[in-house]
Amino acid sequence: MTLRNRRPRPLSNLPTIFVDEVGITLGNIADAASGAITPTLRIGVTGLSRAGKTIFITALIHNLLSGATLPGFQAMTQGRLIGAQLTEHPDNATPRFAYENHLAALLGTPPTWPESTRRISQVRLTLRYQSDRWLKNRMGLSTLNLDIVDYPGEWLLDLPLLSKSFRQWSDEALDLAQRPNREEEATPFLEALKATDTMAQADETAAETLALAFTQYLRASKQDARALSTLPPGRFLMPGDLEGSPALTFAPLPKPSHAPRSNSLYAMLERRFEAYKTVVIRPFFRDHFARLDRQIVLVDALRALNAGPEAVSDLENALTSVLACYRQGRVNPISRILNRRIDKILFAATKADLLHHTSHAKLEAILNRLVMNATRRARFAGAQTQSLAIAAIRATREGRIKDNGDTLDTIIGTPEQGQVLGDTTYDGETEIALFPGDLPDSPESLFKTDESTPELNFLRFLPPTDLQRSETGEPIFPNIRLDRAIDYLIGDKLQ
């Protein structure tokens, strides 16, 4: 869209933005006051759907509570971490992360993966440790409150909407819907749009019809066959307690031929778009997002690889948009009271257990390519970044098989019921050895549609069943580099 065609942001939005900033500052002051005796570190955990947020948080909490051996977590290997316990969170307005329910699902008979993140939640862990600094150590044991905030990555894709008008968003959304890679999923919505007179009298049934068709298109684009990621508004995919509300009953509309009347369908949906920003996006940004200290972004790169180059490119665009929203950079203890910023970001390619360990370096290289633009921006702002290939709970083990005289590195596990590979549909009971394929040496090849694109086979596996036990009898979940992720996120705060 050319600059002369852009509609200016209404002046009425500016006081709201100012009020948001005041609210953020007051929230930071309140956090600082409550942490005057016991410091608090707020870590955001996000990722697009099925990236493994719930599993990561459950595994993190369980490992810290049970005292499991985490070789890469220095405070633990040095014997300085005394212990951890769940404590009451001071924010009574935000749902608590249902750790106990998620753990029960993983330890059930049979074990199942816990339900995915559908709304924001949080939980507080209080850690007791011995500092390795002489003066601090002389004062006895130290305490750190670790607040973990779990929220859907789809909601982050909404934050750029704050600076867009309904017209701008509609142009972008319709442009995406008309692209060849979305044609099949978007056609029913586009046909419903053509059959609707958007300049006619506002009608609730027409609004609901368009909103439903638009939502179905977004959800279809999210399925494994497409695995697309750039699909705002995020609450259309994960509405939470707002499902069915007027703030979620709108859709993008083509540019009108003349100024719409205030009682037209077009004007009504435009008002609902603005209400979505006011009721949904701003409170999330003000009350949660802008008050984070550190962030882990979980990325299901393998799902995008399974879907092909278009899904990989779309995932890169989504991650770049997501990371552009963060307030990043270093702050000193004084300025942090008024202006909280994220000083560390961890990018984690999840489900590394779906690959043999010999491919993990390639997976990290792919992740680095996906977040390259976001990483540059973060580092320029002064934030630290790191990338890891992880599996918070490992569902497979490794093996080797012979195939036509070749030795192939495989993973061994039980695929979930209904998983399909070739002509085989798995029953959820049969253990298999799978060669998932070779990741390319150059990540750039994954963005190109040509004959050299590797054939990859990634299935979803059931949780592990034969678990080891700690000295106290607690079940221990196998993992891949969870210890290094924990050390990066909180290790320096336990010194």
From TrEMBL:
**Top-level division of the source organism's lineage:** Bacteria
InterPro entries, alphabetized? YcjX-like (IPR007413)
Q: Which protein, by its recorded name, is this?
A: Amino acid regulated cytosolic protein
Q: Which species does this protein come from?
A: Pelagibacterium lentulum
